[in-house]
Predict the structure.
Amino acid sequence: MKAWKSPIRILIVFLIVLSVWASFNWDGLNPLFWLNQLFHFFLLIVPGFAIYQLTLRLKLIKPTRWEHRLITSLILFLLFDPIFPWWVFLTLGLITEPLQRWFRVPTGPIINPAALAAIGLSLVGQFPTWWGTNFSPRLDIIPGGMSAVMFLTVPVAGYVAYKYRKLQIVATALVAFAVAYLLVVRSNPLGIMFEGTFVFFLLVMAIEPKTSPALQKQQWLYGALLGLLVVLFIEAGLLGIWIEPYAGALVVINLFFSLYRNKTLLLAKLKKSPTQPTVPTPVPVVQSSAQTPLA
């Protein structure tokens, strides 16, 4: 029971509850719809698990925690809505496991695997809708309305971010986003900041422990650049250059900080001199201590 009080297990429970709530909000208790939802989740998690077991048996990777695969699958389930064709979920299930197991540095994955998979699917025209992070009922307290999901996301995911000591990232990203949005887009940012999706993105994906910095000074910079990048991707979309703003910003900032944090190791590998041929060490001749008899 104690294990389920850990931040990673609390996050799993939160994502499961959110997935069930979003599905119920979409089509109530329709049995066919729920079977379809279960099929989509099956396609997300089973292919990746099969790839993991195969590569583990072949000794191509080291064992990893099952929670990471489950969290990634649940996030993708909340990003891609039930209208997407089945092959989208199958593709996500097939590519996510290799992305997070093989594109790594010693400290962990280089890029948040859910964000990277979302960007990969957007290249073939399948953009995430974030349907499970922002849905009705809504409260008319901000432009466009605030989703009731916020009353679940903020306390639960916020607690997880607090336990991971990553709330500085969230606060800095919100401030940087608000300022940059006012200056670049010249519009009220509150409708985006508190409708539900952006807060989920920050509290669940942006503060992922393995791909976000742990040092306080780096967290300030990470959050500020992330907020700025989201605005720049939104502005690019308004100009006709569409890249999913949240996933795109997270991929860029994860890549930058992963390379920065591991620059010493990467430079050492680049500067490593070629292996020199081994020269056998001569064996010294040891004279016997016995006296040679006189003739």
In short: The beta strands are 104-105, 108-109, 138-139, 146-147. The chain has one domain: 2-265. The chain has twelve helices and four strands.
